[in-house]
Design brief:
alpha/beta, Nucleotidyltransferase, domain 5, 2 domains, five-stranded mixed β-sheet, 5 strands
């Protein structure tokens, strides 16, 4: 990894990789910026590297526009994507205080939308929105993060993604939608891509029942993305950054950490005989 940036245009002393490393240690150990810089300085000293360390103001300034690579592994066959969202607290008291005494002021959240690969559980796509944005409008943006030359076999989600725009976005990538029709759902007029497959799902649910359809279609694999959400929150129940752009970078760094954990913990099996 290159620690210092190459001279080009406006001089930036530290490379993006150095800034991302500092922010990764900050998110991994849940440290403030000043303590994160102290940890990096100690690690460099232990490694006998006489490298400068970015101060906390540099980390804060560069965090706003830092490009973060998730590092997800490409699928061996067709990508089977599972999509879900969760809320990360940005401002407000803890749950116990709210239950016991009530909220002193309105709590605010950020919604994290992720898409994971069923095969290796890597986070392949992530979007961060306010709590005023629903799940369905974000699905096309998540699919856009998957390379166009990578085949998507299926996209799974809950009933919140049962909209025409979501089915059209999935059909545009020539993927199968594993999305249950809402309980009060009716057949749609087949004048848009993906509507015919959705109506077939509705007929299958009415004929077989919702429970049998979920087992037959593999819908229960969606529990994998819920488990990944739990792992995501183990890195912190709230986001520490204050502005929206800084929060996006912080949450993307957490996703990159989980992908790295998955890659380290997954054995590489090689057949020898």
């Amino acid at each position: 990894m290159q620690w210092l940036s190459a001279p080009c245009g406006r001089p930036a002393r530290f490379s993006d990789g150095a800034i991302e490393l500092c922010l990764t240690l900050k998110a991994l150990f849940n440290l403030p910026l000043r303590q994160a810089t102290g940890l990096v300085a100690s690690l460099l000293k232990l490694a006998d590297l006489n490298w400068p360390v970015p101060d906390y103001t540099t980390l804060c300034r560069r965090q706003k526009t830092l490009p973060v690579t998730l590092g997800g592994r490409p699928s061996s066959g067709g990508l089977h994507l599972l999509i879900d969202s969760t809320g990360i607290k940005m401002m407000g008291e803890g749950e116990w205080k709210t239950r016991k005494h009530g909220a002193s002021y309105r709590r605010q959240w950020r919604k994290v939308h992720i898409g994971i690969d069923v095969e290796n559980l890597d986070i392949r796509a992530i979007e961060v929105t306010t709590n005023a944005i629903g799940d369905a409008p974000v699905l096309p943006d998540l699919l856009a993060q998957i390379p166009a030359d990578e085949k998507i076999g299926s996209v799974g989600g809950d009933g919140a993604y049962d909209t025409k725009k979501c089915h059209a976005a999935i059909a545009e990538r020539e993927a199968q939608a594993i999305i249950p029709v809402r309980r009060n759902g009716r057949p749609w007029k087949e004048d848009a891509p993906g509507v015919q497959a959705r109506n077939e799902t509705l007929r299958a649910i009415k004929r077989l029942g919702r429970t049998i359809w979920k087992k037959w279609s593999g819908y229960h694999r969606r529990s994998l993305v819920e488990t990944k959400m739990h792992c995501f929150k183990l890195l912190g129940q709230r986001v520490m950054a204050r502005t929206f752009n800084h929060q996006i970078t912080e949450l993307k760094v957490r996703a990159a950490i989980l992908n790295r954990f998955s890659q380290i913990g997954t054995p590489n099996t090689v057949r020898v005989a």
